[in-house]
Amino acid sequence: MIFYFSGTGNSRWVAEQLSVLLNDRLIAISEAFASGEFTYTLAEGERLGFVFPTYSWGPAPVMVDFIKRMEINGYSEDTFVYMVTTCGDDVGLSVKIWQKALGEMKGCAAYSVQMPNNYILLPGFDVDSKDLELQKKEKAIGRVEYISKRISERHRETDVVEGACAWLKSRVIYPWFSRYSMSDKKFIVDTEKCTHCGLCVKSCPMKNISLNENLTPQWHGDCAMCLACIHRCPVRAIEYAHATQKKGRYFFK
Ligand SMILES: Cc1cc2nc3c(=O)[nH]c(=O)nc-3n(C[C@H](O)[C@H](O)[C@H](O)COP(=O)(O)O)c2cc1C
Ligand code: SF4
Ligand code: SF4
């Protein structure tokens, strides 16, 4: 069983590849949040996987929230529990934060996969060049195949790029991000540009966007900060305050 969360499609692609290579079933945690149903049953010997993006040097907070709410029937000490996190560069202490969220369950293996960057909100951060984007995607194919082999062989290991100053980033910046930055209040829409296509609504994994009476998007306060809406808009009608006007856009194809 693989639980996944994805905004701009990188983690969904990784989860789909793993699901095929490992023959594990795939579950989008967005469905659990939509239905309010967080109970699952493992078959005998079934693995338990978590695939999610790194946000601010920790697991996407929505995945931490999911892990704390989920109830897994059939878990035993023999269950092989693993995580794979996608990132633009590095993941800090994401593995430790994931393990803590698991509580009594024991994480056995953890991997990171570098994928095209989608973080564009702060000065100095932008999407990758087209060349780098393609290089990362090319490399990721082999990386995911390698990870699936290691998981199927039940290696107990941590194989992630932590990056520099991991403690500071994950123990100071990540808690601040989780607590104060998960807000959709700064999204704005240029009503002149909006073509009312509804792609922002469809791309939101939290079902947090609807079109108002003028057929332009409105946000409803339950945001995972995945940035899918801003990246998916085909006419760049969505911005995040004044931070993103000069930034690129990215969505996994
Ligand atoms: C809010 C936010 C914070 C991010 N923080 C990090 C980070 O700490 N380290 C990193 O390497 N990439 C970071 N990224 C980039 C994403 O982890 C990366 O692009 C990921 O593959 C996106 O996954 P998705 O397409 O499944 O949503 C961040 C992206 C967002 C939206
Ligand atoms: S509102 Fe936008 S950033 Fe927030 S969860 Fe939905 S798609 Fe992601
Ligand atoms: S994706 Fe862009 S153009 Fe389409 S409805 Fe949303 S804001 Fe408007």
> Which fold name corresponds to the CATH topology of the largest domain?
Rossmann fold
Radius of gyration: 18 Å
Low-confidence stretches: none
Q: Write down the overall mean pLDDT.
A: 98
- If helices are DSSP runs of H or I spanning 4 or more residues, what is the number of helices? 8
CATH class of the largest domain equals Alpha Beta
**Strand/helix succession:** EHEHEEEHEEHEHEHEHEEHE
Major beta-sheet overview: 7 strands, mixed
Total strand count, please? Answer: 13
Provide the list of bound ligands, each named once: flavin mononucleotide, iron/sulfur cluster
Overall shape: globular
**Overall number of domains:** 2
Distance between the termini: 25 Å
How would you explain this protein's 3D organization?
With 253 residues, the chain is α/β, with parallel strands linked by helices. It has 8 helices and 13 strands. The chain folds into 2 domains: 2-179, Flavodoxin domain (Rossmann fold, 3-Layer(aba) Sandwich), CATH 3.40.50.360; 187-240, 2-Layer Sandwich (Alpha-Beta Plaits), CATH 3.30.70.20. The chain has helices at 10-22, 29-35, 61-69, 94-102, 130-152, 166-180, 199-203, 228-232, and strands at residues 2-4, 26-28, 39-41, 48-55, 58-59, 71-73, 81-87, 109-114, 157-159, 187-189, 209-211, 217-219, 238-240. α3 (61-69) packs parallel to α4 (94-102). The protein starts with a strand and ends in a 13-residue tail after the last strand. The structure holds flavin mononucleotide and iron/sulfur cluster (SF4) (2 copies). One iron/sulfur cluster is lined by residues 189, 194-200, 216-217, 233, 235, 237-238.
